[in-house]
C-alpha cells in the first residue's frame, strides 16, 4: 500500500506531460486549420505511416534480425501486435485520400489525435521500454510536423 502513492504520483506526472505535449501538437494543428491544411494533414499522415511501418518491420520476427529497435514484450502476441499496426496504417491512409477532404479540420485533428493516442498506448503495452520509445516518437513527430510547409 505504501508503494501505491509514489506509483500514482508518477502516473499523474506522466499523464500531465502527455496532455501538455498533445496540447502543443493540437494547438499547432489549429494554426493551420484552413483549406490548404488537408495537404499538411496528408503529409503528416505519411510521416506517421513511415514510423508505424518501421515499428511493424522491427516487431516482425520473420523479417528482421535480432538487432531491433522495437522489441515485443515477452508473452505478447506478435500476430496481434502486427495486426494492430496494420490497422493504424489503414487508418492513416485515409488522411491521404479524397475522403478526408469531406471532413472538417477539427474532425481530422480529432481523428489524428485519437490515432496518435492509441499508438502511444500500443508502444507502452507491447514494446520493451515502451514509455521511452513513446516519448521519442512523440518528439520526433512534433519536430516533423513543425518542419512541414
Would you mind describing this structure in some detail?
It is a single chain. It is globular and about 50 Å long. Helix 3 (78-94) packs antiparallel against helix 4 (105-126) and helix 4 runs antiparallel to helix 5 (130-147). The chain starts with a helix and ends with a helix. It has 149 residues and is mainly alpha-helical. It has helices spanning 4-31, 37-59, 78-94, 105-126, 130-147. The longest helix has 28 residues, at 4-31. The chain has one domain.
Note the overall shape. globular
Helix content bin:
over 70%
Q: By helix and strand content, what is the structural category?
A: mainly alpha
Mean pLDDT: 81
Count of extended strands: 0
Rg for CA atoms? 17 Å
Report the portion of residues in β strands: under 5%
Largest sheet: none
Which runs of at least 5 residues are low in confidence (pLDDT < 50)?
Answer: none
Number of helices: 5
- Can you tell me the number of structural domains? 1
Q: What's a quick, concise take on this entry?
A:
With 149 residues, this protein is mainly α. The chain has one domain (4-147). Helices cover 72% and strands 0% of the residues.
